[in-house]
């Protein structure tokens, strides 16, 4: 087994026994479900909205070359510096070079999952730069030296008491469990960072090809300050973020808010098309956009799973996933957790090293059903499993499944196994949980299903 799979099993075992943390996550996500259902019900036709969003993303991804070039051309016409990064290493180097050229000392950064993906903070800190997360949840997990727990809610695994203790220890604040007071403590600490920052780094929710603008959606206003106050702004985005037209935002902005947080619309929605223009009162003097591939084109080349690039990072699939609800976000050990992370991580990193994520699924289909852009997530998990086995077969699994297929395709032979199966069921309690138990992985946490005293065929035969 690979190191990530060993860590996954160990952490999953620990978290599933941590009833306090599981309770926190499940309570938070049940509240989300209530809010999301209320907001989707307000749509005239939510399913038609999903279909339209899926078709729009299909158009963008299947003509990505055209829309990316249009996006870049419009950006550069307004004085924006556009950089292409094939790998995470290239993206880090580009951003480090920009920061060094500006003789920067401090950096303020708003929420950017692509920055987590390329481990940007670590690279900047190792180079001697101070980097401060301005999103409240991201700031909290940064103080704890942790990765975000969730794509949308980075600190959802923490109680107010734990956050108060953290602020008391790291910021010298007084103890409080009042959410507003905790927010104000973080706000006072962050205000000075905005003022002194030389560079602001943002992520991007959508990139509009028609107008050459990036769209950032947020609830705190921190991204606006990150973009407006420092002299230099850097936006890092995956190449799949492109939408063809500005009018597409009329659907995608409320859909992102509804699917991601159960909101009608996110509080702050901003568009940036370049550095400060003559006559404008604020904005960066210098604007850089870094377009990140990092194996996205490998996924683009896979016609079967290409629609995974439609993802708008709303986190809805995590919120409904029974595996995520039980093992939590940190167990996945990767930037993108839950069903979407389990689908794309083997593509973005390594199939054999990360194939265990696709195995850690109930295949219930809840993720596919909730996805606002209709990504066929649970089928992609099956396809990842198939591809992993085809690439590197496991000899004993191959023998086991061939034996199973041989037996299942021969009804008379299968009939002969029934008496032995019933005998084995009677003897099983004697060996349950020991090394002799062939089902010990299952019976460690669950009861083995009982065989019926008589099969349907036997009952039917007796009736006739």
Describe the fold and architecture.
- The chain has 23 helices and ten strands.
- With 464 residues, the protein is of the alpha/beta class.
- β5 and β6 form a beta hairpin.
- α1 runs parallel beside α17 and α9 packs parallel to α10.
- The protein is globular, with a radius of gyration of 25 Å.
- The N and C termini lie far apart (53 Å).
Features:
464 residues; alpha/beta; Rossmann fold; 3 domains; four-stranded mixed beta sheet; 23 helices; 10 strands; 55% helix; globular
In short:
This protein is an alpha/beta fold.
Q: Count of DSSP E strands? A: 10
Helix content: 40-55%
* Sheet having the most strands: 6 strands, parallel
Shape: globular
- Indicate the radius of gyration in whole angstroms: 25 Å
Question: If you average the pLDDT, what whole number results?
Answer: 94
Strand content: 5-15%
The number of distinct structural domains comes to: 3
User: Which class do the helix and strand fractions yield?
Assistant: alpha/beta
**What do we call the CATH topology of the largest domain?**
Rossmann fold
Q: Please count the helical segments.
A: 23
| The CATH class of the largest domain | Alpha Beta
Which stretches are poorly predicted, pLDDT < 50 over at least 5 residues?
none
Distance between the termini: 53 Å
CATH superfamily of the largest domain: NagB/RpiA/CoA transferase-like
Proper CATH architecture of the largest domain:
3-Layer(aba) Sandwich
Strand arrangement, major sheet: 1-10-7-4-2-3
